[in-house]
Backbone:
């Protein structure tokens, strides 16, 4: 699925499909209902841009951004925000992203610029769109520098440079939710923000096909996202070389080139995107979780976070590693009571706190993974979610029969009186 199609489709489905069933909300994109899971958080599968979760954090997993490739939608093993294998109908335009320009820069002209920026080699099997295409400008093809074929491509768009989407596009995902080799995010001399990422086709690494990306957002709101594989197609093709054709330095030079500016200037400037709600004040979720588990006596072998509201700990008392997460979702000032309908069947405690517990299979591809959760809705509308897994991450295989925490202990954490002091109830 092409880059721009996935972006709009993923945003639309994330907004429409935000329910309590089948969501652990461990992905940053899901915790607001309007963020991508990338970076994702997902928001970000190794083989996709979006995680425009995106792209961190992850968090959402999507597939096939830069063209139809050879694998169709695939089953990335994560939150399936864009799974259709057939070319989708034109998606609802994504908030903050305008696509259609005057057509002043054609597909052939973009392809010519792309070839000019690539090192010595041959680009074949080219698919391209110009600035007048409603799906957005892009070029993808198979590049061969003499050391093996690798698919490579890019997409151009415009975003609100101060918006949440722009921030998420260049934010590295947590290694707890996504396994990858390296990721860096930096601010360049001209004020642009750049992310360089070395990962894999699938988050659970069911195959070793590599996917590398470079994403830049400029102060003008120009968004250039390029990615490449060490195979001739995005999914399903055998590896044809040890690594993708371009180094990260070459990918950086590709996305930051001013030669893209004529095409980007032909696209309408994006409108002002919704701003991220102010971060919760007080201790970070990861610190709260660690403090609450300090008396359990279970060694903590790893800790990570995704902002102030989402923290991860990996526990191991000698019986196998177990991922535990704490997510805090304050009520929205703009939409008070936004979580209420998720707790219609919940039990209510004397203080008015409502809670639910759930046991279900893991949904990120890890073999034998089970996922337990305890959720509480506090009287002030804040939602507290404690999740635990019998594996080191959601996409890795189970290391033990059950999570390190019992469901009863997780209920204690989610409904703890600690929240009264944290929120002044």
Residues:
């Amino acid at each position: 699925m092409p880059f721009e199609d996935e972006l709009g489709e993923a945003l639309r489905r994330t907004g429409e499909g935000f329910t309590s069933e089948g969501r652990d909300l461990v992905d940053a994109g899901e915790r607001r209902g309007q963020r991508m899971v990338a970076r994702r958080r997902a928001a970000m599968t190794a083989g996709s841009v979006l995680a425009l979760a995106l792209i961190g954090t992850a968090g959402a997993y999507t597939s096939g951004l830069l063209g139809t490739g050879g694998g169709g939608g695939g089953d990335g093993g994560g939150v399936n925000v864009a799974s259709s294998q057939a070319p989708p109908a034109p998606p609802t335009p994504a908030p903050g992203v305008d696509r259609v320009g005057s057509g002043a820069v054609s597909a052939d002209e973009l392809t010519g610029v792309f070839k000019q920026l690539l090192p010595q080699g041959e680009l074949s099997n080219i698919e391209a769109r110009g600035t007048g295409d409603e799906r957005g400008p892009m070029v993808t093809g198979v590049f061969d520098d003499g050391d093996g074929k690798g698919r490579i491509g890019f997409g151009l768009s415009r975003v609100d440079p101060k918006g949440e989407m722009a921030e998420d596009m260049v934010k590295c995902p947590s290694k707890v939710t996504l396994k990858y080799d390296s990721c860096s995010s930096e601010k360049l001399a001209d004020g642009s923000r750049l992310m360089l990422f070395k990962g894999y086709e699938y988050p659970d690494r069911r195959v070793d096909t590599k996917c590398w990306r470079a994403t830049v957002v400029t102060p003008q709101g120009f968004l250039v996202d390029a990615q490449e594989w060490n195979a001739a197609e995005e999914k399903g093709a055998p590896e044809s070389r040890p690594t993708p054709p371009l180094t990260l330095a070459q990918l950086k030079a590709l996305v930051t080139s001013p030669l893209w500016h004529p095409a980007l200037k032909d696209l309408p400037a994006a409108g002002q995107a919704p701003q991220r709600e102010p971060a919760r004040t007080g201790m970070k979720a990861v610190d709260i979780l660690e403090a609450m588990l300090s008396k359990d006596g279970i060694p903590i072998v790893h800790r990570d976070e995704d902002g102030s509201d989402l923290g991860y700990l990996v526990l191991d008392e000698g019986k196998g590693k177990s991922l535990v997460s704490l997510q805090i979702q304050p009520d929205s000032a703009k939409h008070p009571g936004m979580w209420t309908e998720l707790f219609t069947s919940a039990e209510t405690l004397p203080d008015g706190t409502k809670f639910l517990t759930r046991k279900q299979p893991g949904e990120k591809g890890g073999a034998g993974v089970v996922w337990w959760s305890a959720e509480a809705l506090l009287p002030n509308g804040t939602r507290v979610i404690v999740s635990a897994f019998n594996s080191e991450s959601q996409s890795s295989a189970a290391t033990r029969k059950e999570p390190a925490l019992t469901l009863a202990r997780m209920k204690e954490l989610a409904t703890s009186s600690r929240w009264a002091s944290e929120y002044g109830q």
